[in-house]
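Notes, p. 3: input format for complexes.
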Amino acid sequence: MTAAVEHNGFGRNSRSMLRRLRDVMAEARAPQDRLDSITSIIAADMAAEVCSIYVRRSDNLLELCATEGLNKDAVHRTLMHFGEGLVGDIAARAQSIALSDAQSHPKFAYRPETGEEIYQSLAGVPVMRADRVLGVLVVQNRSRRQYSDEEIETLETFAMVLAELLANGVFGDQAPKHDTPLRLAGQTVAPGIGIGVAYFHQQSTAIRRVVADNPAVEKERLETAMREVRDRIDTLLAAPDLAEVGEHRDVLETFRMIAHDRGWLTRMNDAIDNGLTAEAAVQRARADMRARLGSVQNPYLRERLADFDDLANRLLSRLAGEEENGDAAAIAEDQPYVVVARSMGPAELLEYDRHNLTGLVLEEGSATAHVAIVARALDIPVLGNIPGLLSEVNPGDRLIVDADNNQVLLRPTEDVQEYFHAGLKARAETKARYQALRDLPARTLDGVDVTLLLNVGLMFDLQQLDATGAAGIGLYRTEIPFMVRRDIPDVEQQTDVYRRVLEAANGRPVTFRTLDAGGDKHIQAFDHDPGDNPALGWRSLRISVDHPSLLRNQLRAIFRAAAGAPVDLMFPMVSTVAEFDAARAILDRELERAVRHGDPLPRNLRLGSMLEVPSLAWQLPEILKRVDFLSVGSNDLQQFFFAADRGDQRVTHRYDPVSVPFLRLLKQIADACNEMDKPLTLCGEMAGSRIGALALIGIGYRRLSMASASIGPVKETVRAINYTDLQTFMSNLLKSREGRLVEHLKAFSRDHQIPA
Ligand code: PEP
Ligand code: MG
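Output follows (756 residues plus magnesium ion):
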């Protein structure tokens, strides 16, 4: 039989096929026999000439354990590494593939012992359970067959059944066991250090029944479970420590809305009609979602995937009659633990006992993940984007989440653990030291004042104003409330957010930056094509000047929130003065409108520009004539200056901002501002590193805006500086050296007892 054969996909025949599978599983047969029968059933149902099952072994190799169609001699002989060949690729990426011409695929690895050279097309799906890949299921055809989406779905349903078999240990111990210490690199999602035992998220619920006897009963079970899940979500969201307004609430409310969406309930009911039990239908809907969205990069869709995963897990536990995260409750009392997951929805984190939860590690999560927003609000360290995490950790392993240094340590030795425990203690002491500096001025030994300001994005950052003693908010990133919502916040909603910011500032100055959407800042409600180079594309002020109403609404909200108080405002990503003028004209129109409507105008409106595009550095006299202040965004400026993507770990650290070329540019900017007597702030990451701040102060910067964790250390550094010495040193360095200057500045700090 070949591609010409009409295939039904998962539908009419699926119930009888599932029954046959169930019978095979129920019979008292040797495991190998069962696997062989399963491959025959699948091959026949899928109209495939080959069906093979690869099982993951404890040494992490994928072993061909059964086949219909390939040489039987190859069984238990053919082994693939994760990532090797198409089978290894499916396992490594945990994603299905369908290829009509598999042999021309770059990943195709020919294994002569299998005799597979005569098969052109291939479809394969990962066999997964609780986020772990247990094996790979493959079908092949001689002709160039285009496998349909329905066929892949069918294969995924088979894989699900198989996963339950493998997980129940029918074919031996598949769980790889690692016992040596290992360090895995990741990306800081929420800062901090956490030590505890590994607890695998979603490990609890096994599906015991796949084939339904009575669809009506299954539908009823699903309905009930759904109702219970919704009630549970309402209870969770009512927790007092989440009551405070902030983006985490927006994120959680979005999740609540998704839980009430009926679309996917309909889809699960369809799967029940096709012969699955309620739990298998949930699993089916989840697999579907993963297959459709698994490879998309769009952060909005990735968040939806995490939300669906969360709901699916909740439903499965309900259907199995468990309390949510039943096993989490089983973690020994007073045992600090770290949750390990592929990804996670924001509400899932709330299920864990927060008292002993010391950290979260995610194979896929990034800093914009919604769970990160909730974790930050709860002060839980999170490390994300850790390739290989799930296959390297064993449940119960000791873990050290060092989110401050982008790493997680698995099974650390006693020495290392002691070192980190000591580190945690030292952290607490350091925190106390910075706390003691809170009300002291950021003044150099020879009396030069440096203004230390806060960068704020999330509402939760606002608490840090009082905690750090920052002089005000040097950069309020207005896009954050846009990023966590599904729709564009209207004027009233924005006014509410900005009012809360001003209230928290309590008279301290706040610099509002207008919407900086695009590039690395994805706004869910803007579904525009990001283009090939999002950082260089239609973003930020470019969008605002093309959509004046967007900018005007934002300005209206800022003015309303200020209610007559002074306002500092700046435009991001200004590339030319003409662009600044265009934005300014929109601002003027909004001010005229306010006058017409009798709305209160800001008592004193100071308008600034960010300098984060190098071209503006060659228009300094022109831009400085137009603005009340300038703010250097060194993150973007550095990205464009060195042509190095700020989000690409392979290149970001290759070019140092504390280096001659970049500091020369920054000094030119400072000199021009000094000459024209315009206040200048630098609000990129560089301002928050002690060495960066040292260099900046040495070349004339007096206002630095940074993340809250940096205020204490930078203030400590400032208070140890003799400005006259530093200025001479920097000026000589920029004349006499080339390239990186960090080591020189460190030596200077050592010589002058400056903490750096
Ligand atoms: C910058 O680019 O340095 C900056 C402060 O803005 P953001 O990091 O928000 O792009
Ligand atoms: Mg920027």
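The radius of gyration is 29 Å.
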